[in-house]
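Project standup — Tuesday

K.O.: blocked on the structure for the chain from last sprint. Re-posting the sequence here as requested.
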Amino acid sequence: MNIYWIIYKTTCRCNGKIYIGQHKLSGIEKEIYLGSGKLIIRAIQKYGRENFVRQIIKTCSSQELADEMETSFIIAYGSTNRKIGYNITKYAFGGHPISDGARKKISDKLKGRKLSVEHIEKLRVRKSPRTSEHAKKISEANRGCVWIHDPIGNTSRKWKNDATIPIGWVLGRGKTQRIDRKPPTYPPNWLSNVRLANSNGDKKDKIRKTLTGHVVSDKVRQKIRESVTKYHEKIGHNTRNTVADADSGRGQHSSCDCLGMEVRGPA
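H.V.: unblocked you, prediction finished:
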């Protein structure tokens, strides 16, 4: 499937303002994409989608070339001027690129910086819980909004429920695409080695010697009988002989014998 990028100009028929943007395509568009900038979205909601027309002004074969051409056309048309267009900045994706040198200067300037008491107080107040009035304003602002998701750009945003969803966007918040991970690999016979390590004969002998001669009280014996009964009822086995053997201490497979404990009847 052929993938390409277009640089387009969206024009509002009501006021003549324009918006320059880019859009990734891999086939035929089902609906004309007009833009996703904040100002162009507000304009579409205000004037209606039918009052906007899009014109393709350039086709690009890569994302890097599309970013460069979008910036060039924004500057050429002057669409960041509020009287002319709806673009917020002259850079692609609405962001200003920061070079590595600029990042290092900012980092060096902030190292060792001590915050004033007033600044700390402002940060503390900013992180304080919302007041009821603030929560009410947020609730009213979000009323009638839905989440929409752009699968190509892997971004989500809130959208007015009564407004037309932009081309390529779908209802829902969407999820970040996961990278499939390879299943873990284990050495040969790893499970047998683990079982062998856990079945330490010396350890079992030590436990057996500790429990040998241990007297089981009537209360403990009753608990063992109830536990065995519940287990066999769960798996559907007949437990009469098992319980009887556990009571008399004659059972060859009773829980007490397995632990090396001596079962004594009441004195």
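K.O.: great, moving the ticket to review. The two ends are 88 Å apart (CA to CA). Confidence is low (pLDDT under 50) at residues 176-181, 249-267.
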